[in-house]
Amino acid sequence: SDVVQAVSSPIDSSTLPHRRLAHFSDSRLVASGIPSKHDPTDCPACMLNAKRGSFPSKSKVQRRLPPRAVRFGQIINSDLLSMPDSIENYRYLMVFVDEASSESFLRFLTSKSSGAVLQALQSFVAENAHLMDGGRVATWNTDNGGEFDSSEIDAYCNAVSTHQTRTPAHTPELNGKAERLNGIIVRGVRILLAESNLSEGL
Question: In DSSP terms, which residues pair with 107 in a beta bridge?
């Protein structure tokens, strides 16, 4: 791949927080309470894996619109990300992103069957029920993948009064928060692999 390449650079103690936290930007480190004055142009791994592209920024009209959600659990965005097999045989990563707060949660799956997806959703709900009105997700937004479309998922959503919305094919921007988190995860992993001189296959 032309994205991940071997990088050899001396260890500088002043950049350790940046390196240890998957090459977070200076602004993200500071926002997390970690003092940093890191310059990304001084990091070969960051430069090799520079951001390729993203969804367009919101227009002025879009920024004036009221938020889609104002409470945790009002809208939860999800997506599935494939990954190399782990030692525990996990092959997929499922993300849950709250629309109102942008708080994110991850679940590891051994398969992308609808049963595994439903189990991940139920696990997320159980963990966060105390934060959500009625202890449930009001609207669950996913793409149109077959793993999100099954009778058992429909039955669960109907039973707990969760409205499921599925975006049309080839419109990842409509599930932008979940897709964006996937991009952040993949980019962080590729940067760590580049700096470690390890194969992207890992």
Answer: 94
Tell me which residue of 70, 69, 75, 53 sits closest to 172, measured CA to CA. 53
Q: Which helix (H) or strand (E) holds 112?
A: none
Contact in structure between 124 and 107 (CB atoms under 8 Å): yes
pLDDT 10s digits, 21-66: 666 677 777 777 777 766 666 676 666 666 555 555 555 555 667 8
In sequence order, the β-bridge partners of residue 139 are 75, 163
Can you tell me the distance from the alpha carbon of 151 to that of 118, in angstroms, rounded to the nearest whole number?
A: 11
Structure tokens at 127: 């963990």
Which two three-digit tokens encode residue 141? 């937004």
Give the separation between CA 8 and CA 10, rounded to whole angstroms. 7
168 alpha-carbon distance from chain centroid: 20
User: Would you give the DSSP letter of residue 122?
Assistant: H
**CA terminus-to-terminus distance, the chain:** 13
* SS3 label, residue 158: helix
- Inter-helix orientation angle 151-160/114-128, to 10°: 20
Task: List the structure tokens of 93.
Answer: 């990563």
Residues 6+ apart with CB under 8 A from 159: none
